[in-house]
Amino acid sequence: MANITKISPLAPAHFPQLPVIAGVRFATAAAGVKYQGRTDVMLAVLDSGTTVAGTFTRSATRSAPVLDCQAKIGGASDGPAAILVNSGNSNAFTGHYGQTSVATLTQSVSDITGVSTDRVFTSSTGVIGEPLPHDRIIAQLEDLNGALSTESVEAAAHAIMTTDTFAKGASAQVEINGKTVSIAGIAKGSGMIAPDMATMLVYIFTDAKVDQTSLQQSVSGLTDTTFNCITVDSDTSTSDTLLVCATGASGADASGNAAFTQALNEVMLDLAQQVVRDGEGATKFVEIRVTGAASDADAKVHGLAIANSPLVKTAIAGEDANWGRVVMAIGKSGAAADRDLLSISFGDILVAEKGWVSPSYSEDEAAVYMKAQDLVIAVDLGLGAGSSTVWTCDLTHGYIEINADYRS
Amino acid sequence: MANITKISPLAPAHFPQLPVIAGVRFATAAAGVKYQGRTDVMLAVLDSGTTVAGTFTRSATRSAPVLDCQAKIGGASDGPAAILVNSGNSNAFTGHYGQTSVATLTQSVSDITGVSTDRVFTSSTGVIGEPLPHDRIIAQLEDLNGALSTESVEAAAHAIMTTDTFAKGASAQVEINGKTVSIAGIAKGSGMIAPDMATMLVYIFTDAKVDQTSLQQSVSGLTDTTFNCITVDSDTSTSDTLLVCATGASGADASGNAAFTQALNEVMLDLAQQVVRDGEGATKFVEIRVTGAASDADAKVHGLAIANSPLVKTAIAGEDANWGRVVMAIGKSGAAADRDLLSISFGDILVAEKGWVSPSYSEDEAAVYMKAQDLVIAVDLGLGAGSSTVWTCDLTHGYIEINADYRS
Questions:
Q1: Which of these is catalytic: B57, B106, B165, B199?
Q2: Can you tell me the distance from the alpha carbon of A215 to that of A219, in angstroms, rounded to the nearest whole number?
């Protein structure tokens, strides 16, 4: 029997202290959607004028809540907004019933909070293909609305977990025109219970004032180098959702501000890396740095080919500096590579160069390096100026236990 | 300690009885390239006029022997030909030394057998990045040449194994213009010892007379629906090689003959499926049939996305009819899909249709079906006439043991 509640060895020591974001209040409840004895619903209500940007899974079979969010992003930002999230049921592949559930939930939230339905965003994560028992959630909405508090972000991080082994939060602060702007975010991913699917949900809040177009531009751009650069097992969820909400309560206008974008990038990257650190069965956190590629896009293709290779990932699990498998992954990726220009390092150890093992390479030295929990694999293609960094974890018996052995 | 010599539960009961192919003779030897106490070199010599067609890995980091074979395929077919294969060392990512090894080996084979160097094809499979000790192979060439026999094809199948758990052979016979034409083939794949890589080597021989252009055309076309439709772990070798040799000794001209092409297809498909049945850690053989796709190419993209999904493969290992993961894989594949037109069956059991679970679906019935060793997952996209079938195996603790735990 798999013990999937054991906390990841790569987890941070504790949940970080997140700054209060003026303009957003949270509440959580135990609705019993699927799990018993724990919170499984989060409601966030955002003050009038909050802009909301988002990025979503590109899956062709994406869930009803994702489709609904996508339709609403970019609309008017005048009134208040709300986000309702449940864990335990993803409302994915539930046919027309799924759309009805979303419509019923958003109407109920609107009725109770006074937020217009076109500003109510919902997410669901958990089992797939089962009708969402939305009545259980609706039964909690009055209490949720009464309990809203600016302090409850950590509780919110817990309520959105499925089989995550730890709650994920990150924050940053930056000065803009003499005012302090705060950013706080929470994320879930990527635990699993058969027949669930790993999903990633991310909610980031800031008291900066950012116009929606500018916020969406930043979020879309930063997603490409943060959440779209992580992989646990190459399998893409039907529910992945990232929402970034700018309440404007700080009074500082951060539209197009470089320092704000940098701070937002830090929070997104931190949360993305925490998702990898909670990868199923993970015992190693691996950064793959690709440089010298023909283009940035090529570099990312190579990076993800390495990060998704079962042979590379099992070698890392076995603490084996198996650079041959890295060569293999580069070769199969489909992006440009020249065997004789390639160099590969594990940490500071130059392993391979000019189409062969480096004369300076010591396997004993590499074996010591591979025992570390956090590893860096650096690949230089020797072709151009393209670069990309991606993050992954190893592939262990724990992954098989969680995904094959769990259902008895 | 992983026991990687245990025979796959999916192995055939015994090596098949292969017909003798007039015009080709085999010999094997124990050269001690890496393994001790077993044969590791195979020499095949083919009579004058034999045409040779081949397909090879598309890896950008392919091995020196592969590059050499590719340069020679399609040349003149007048004189005799030879194939030299060693296991234990893949001569991949060995820089310029690798090319020197190939040149030295082909020259030595030429000197001893009288075959012109541009008709000597070599393959190497095994450890990557280590110089091939080609002198050990050359030391065996006189004996090999003296021992050549038309009967030794099964011995050849054994000599090319690395950590395969069984030797792979297949054959077919067909009447052409009143003459019996025979086809016999052998293959290896896909065992592994760190830091080895899985490689697939396939050699098929026929006494049909087929001009090289026609043979190459058949082989290239059939590869797309046989060897290019199997996957164990999505990782592509630097050494994959398929050579098909037509000696013409039967006197029957099979150039462009449909029955011959069909027979060749049977042999290729049989060998391809045997490679999957020896997939690392495999306990289930899975056929994935995709129909109703927008195009054949789209169908294959969907099929391989399902076949390569770690979540689908672990669910199969756990005997879990987890159709939600199949939906997920289709959604992420990038090829066209419409959630509401999709239907999915496991064997004869209709699991999902019209964007949701089928009303007739019984999970108990599916659970019984999933206990079978050979499984069929059928997906209909409901979009067009495109179809493709691919084959894979499950992902088990055995895979992790072989690839992570082996190196202590």
A1: B199
A2: 6
DSSP class of A373: S
- What positions of A carry a catalytic annotation? 199
Same domain for A246 and A299, yes or no, is no
Q: State the DSSP string of B62-110.
A: --HHHHHHHHHTTS--SS-EEEEEEEEE---S-HHHHHHHHHHHHHHHH
pLDDT tens digits, chain B, 408 residues: what are they?
A: 233 458 888 888 999 999 999 999 999 999 999 989 999 999 999 999 999 999 888 788 889 999 999 999 988 888 999 999 999 999 988 888 999 999 999 999 999 999 999 999 999 998 888 899 999 999 999 999 999 999 999 999 999 998 788 999 999 999 999 999 999 999 888 644 323 445 678 899 999 999 999 999 999 999 988 888 887 777 766 778 889 999 999 999 999 999 999 999 999 999 988 888 888 888 999 999 999 999 999 999 999 999 999 889 999 999 999 888 899 899 888 899 998 899 999 999 999 998 888 999 998 999 999 999 999 999 999 999 999 999 999 999 988 888 886 543
| Helices and strands in chain B, H and E counts | 12, 16
**Sequence-ordered strand ranges (E) for A107-254:** 120-127, 168-176, 179-188, 201-206, 230-231, 241-246
Same domain, residue pair B243 and B309: no
Most B-contacting residue of A332, A340, A343 (CB-CB within 10 A), to test interface: A332
CB contact under 8 A, B315 and A404: yes
Query: What range does the domain containing B31 cover?
Result: 24-277
| Contacting residues of B for A192, CB less than 8 Å apart | 311
Residue A122: give its domain's CATH number.
Answer: 3.60.70.12
B314 and B392 in a common domain: yes
CATH at residue A324: 3.10.20.340
Asked about B238 being catalytic, the answer comes back as no
Is residue A24 a contact partner of residue A205, using CB atoms and an 8 Å limit? Answer: yes
Residue ending a domain, choose from B218, B243, B277:
B277
Same-domain pairing of B182 and B164: yes
**What is the ipTM score, two decimals?**
0.83
Number of domains making up chain B: 2
What is the value of pTM for the model shown? 0.86
**Are B140 and B251 found together in one domain?**
yes
Q: Other CB atoms closer than 10 Å to residue B373's CB: what's the count?
A: 11
